[in-house]
Design goal:
With 256 residues, the protein is α/β, with parallel strands linked by helices. It has two domains: 6-58, Winged helix-like DNA-binding domain superfamily/Winged helix DNA-binding domain (Arc Repressor Mutant, subunit A); 68-251, 3-Layer(aba) Sandwich (Rossmann fold). The chain contains nine helices and 13 strands. The protein has helices spanning 6-18, 23-30, 34-46, 68-72, 76-86, 102-109, 124-130, 155-161, 201-212; strands spanning 20-22, 51-53, 56-58, 95-98, 118-121, 137-139, 166-171, 175-181, 191-198, 214-220, 232-236, 242-244, 249-251. The strands form three sheets. It has a seven-stranded mixed sheet, with helices on both faces. Helix 1 packs across helix 3. The termini are far apart.
């Protein structure tokens, strides 16, 4: 950090806190011109400390996730808004799959007063929260808890979810990426779509098992996920029945 100015250090701190900051917001925050902010961003990117995005700056691309505690402190207000929108839509008496991630844990906090839920999850934090309600049935797969992430993943976890059929399956994701797909057999044009992504194939496989065995498929994602990069595909966004962000919820993404 010795080569950074005070303002650059503060910009970097904001980016690590929020994962993504717009140039306009930074300009207003520091009371300097957007050109000055762009020069600071260029310097941070040149040192590999940040990554430029259209209209803003985010965290550098990485193939490894940050710790659960670090992610828990990120975008808290937005994640809580998402949780507040999702929880009331889950009916009592439902069978629900909950995937990994801190937003899912916040949803679990708002389900503690529901009744007769059967919850199947590999999210240890969500299971711990929901276990306080004696009117719920909680199922966890066996295996080693990843202390870094607060979850359990692996082939056996995907098989565990396949033994159930859920009314609602809710997953988060590491990133949302716009990908170009090769043409299908008999077609010549390429297709592009936005995909929910994870950092690891085993994480993506568990999320795929959750959505595959759920009647309703829901994705929860903060806006920062559109600014991040991950390389393991889960499914296309248009395969979800509902997509929840802090700004809005989008229903019936499928073409049905």
């Amino acid at each position: 950090m010795a080569d950074l100015t005070v303002r650059q250090e503060q910009i970097l701190a904001l980016v690590h806190r929020d994962e993504y900051c717009t140039i306009e917001a930074l300009s207003h925050h520091f009371a300097v011109t957007t050109q000055t902010i762009r020069r600071d961003i260029n310097a941070l990117c040149a040192m590999g400390l940040a990554r430029r995005h259209h209209g803003g700056v985010g965290l550098p691309a990485t193939l490894s996730n940050r710790s659960y505690l670090a992610r828990q402190a990120t975008d808290q207000a937005e994640k809580r808004l998402i949780a507040e929108r999702v929880a009331p839509l889950i009916p009592d008496g439902s069978t629900v799959f909950l995937g990994i991630g801190t937003t899912i844990a916040l949803i679990a906090e708002r389900l503690v007063h529901h009744h007769e839920l059967r919850v199947v999850t590999n999210n240890f934090e969500a299971a711990h929260i929901l276990s306080q309600n004696e009117h719920m049935e909680i199922w966890l797969p066996e295996g080693r808890i990843r202390s870094h992430d607060g979850d359990i993943v692996g082939d056996h976890v995907s098989q565990f979810f396949s033994r159930f059929s859920a009314d609602i399956g809710i997953i988060g994701c590491a990133a949302v990426s716009h990908l170009t797909q090769p043409p299908m057999l008999g077609r010549f044009e390429t297709e592009s779509a936005e995909f929910a992504m994870e950092y690891e194939l085993r994480e993506a496989a568990v999320s795929q098992a959750i959505v595959h065995h759920s009647q309703q498929k829901w994705l929860v994602a903060s806006q920062a996920k559109w600014q991040r990069k991950a390389n393991a595909k889960v499914i296309a966004l248009n395969q979800f029945d509902r997509l929840f962000t802090a700004e809005s919820s989008h229903d019936e993404w499928t073409d049905a």
